[in-house]
Write a structure and sequence with these properties.
With about 260 residues, this protein is an alpha/beta fold. Helices cover about 40% and strands about 25% of the residues. The protein contains ten helices and twelve strands. A six-stranded mixed beta sheet has the order 2-1-3-5-6-4, sandwiched between helices. Strands 9-8-7-10-11-12 form a six-stranded parallel beta sheet. Helix 1 links the parallel strand 1 and strand 2. The protein binds 2'-monophosphoadenosine-5'-diphosphate.
Length: about 260
């Protein structure tokens, strides 16, 4: 019998996940389907339960349900526990397992696809919401020299710095004005077509500016104008999907052709 998977979100119509997983399944010869499910804003748990009852084997979870998925999981991976959010669910006889592959996806894109070594580097993470929290631990595992979290609301950055330790510094955008090797935009500003009030001095000649959102963003335009190399989050999207696929199927798909075809 064909195994069923899905992505839950609200909105969900424009999700690229069904395309990505169909490409992975085709490439690796896995007998599975993957659909997009629009869950009602107040009905995520019921929607997932109905999918499980209908034979669903696993799911991805996107905005705004990652915290709800965290609460719903009966067992959690250590990285999901630290992230406080779940983007991947696996349904087994002994209950619902929750994982978070976002951070691993970001690190895979930065290191494997964009060929950036993060060890010993100065990293600036913009934002202190769920998206930022989800990638902190995998970034720290790369042993950067510095990790600074800059946020509009300083107290939220301070909370994350305290939670994760490791000498993370919290700052306002205004106080962040020296060059970094890698600047990662994890704010929700790009979603609204806005640019956080950044100093151009965070970009140097060798800076990579990375937006966790994919497509054209004001942040990437700003970074490019100020001399930085830029990358959007399409690679991260495909890499986090590959990590989820591996969790479900035990097979690692080749992400490069999938990223290339989505770009085209
Ligand atoms: P998510 O889970 O997507 O990260 P969130 O928890 O609501 O969503 O966090 C959104 C993040 O984007 C926060 O860091 C927020 O800053 P505040 O903590 O000060 O609210 C940031 N953000 C949203 N819109 C922004 C904007 N226009 N400029 C700068 N930062 C913005």
């Amino acid at each position: 019998m064909t195994d069923r998977y899905a992505v839950f979100g609200h909105p969900i119509a424009h999700s690229k996940s069904p395309l990505i997983h169909a490409a992975f399944a085709h490439q690796t010869g896995q007998d599975m389907t993957y659909e997009a499910i629009l869950a009602p804003l107040d009905g995520f748990a019921d929607s997932v339960a109905a999918f499980v009852a209908a034979g669903g084997r696993g799911a991805n979870v996107t905005v705004p349900f990652k915290e709800a998925a965290f609460k719903m999981a009966q067992r959690l991976s250590p990285r999901a526990e630290r992230a406080g959010a779940v983007n991947t669910l696996s349904f087994a006889a002994d209950g619902i397992f929750g994982d978070n592959t976002d951070g691993a996806g970001l690190v895979a894109d930065l290191t494997r696809n964009l060929k950036r070594t993060l060890a010993g580097q100065r990293i600036l993470l913009l934002g202190a919401g769920g998206a930022a929290r989800g990638v902190i631990e995998p970034l720290l595992e790369q042993q950067p020299a510095t990790l600074v979290i800059a946020n509009r609301t300083l107290s939220r950055a301070e909370e994350l710095a305290t939670l994760f330790g490791h000498g993370i510094r919290a700052a306002t955008f205004e106080a962040t004005d020296r060059p970094f090797d890698v600047v990662i935009n994890a704010t929700a500003a790009s979603l609204a077509g806005e640019l956080p009030p950044l100093s151009p001095r965070i970009f140097g000649a060798d800076t990579l500016a990375y937006d966790m959102m994919y497509g054209h963003t004001p942040f990437l335009d700003f970074a490019r104008v100020h001399g930085a190399a830029t990358a959007d989050g399409l690679g991260m999207l495909v890499e986090q999907a590959a990590e989820a696929f591996y969790l479900w199927r035990g097979v690692r798909p080749d992400t490069a052709p999938v990223i290339a075809s989505l770009r085209a």
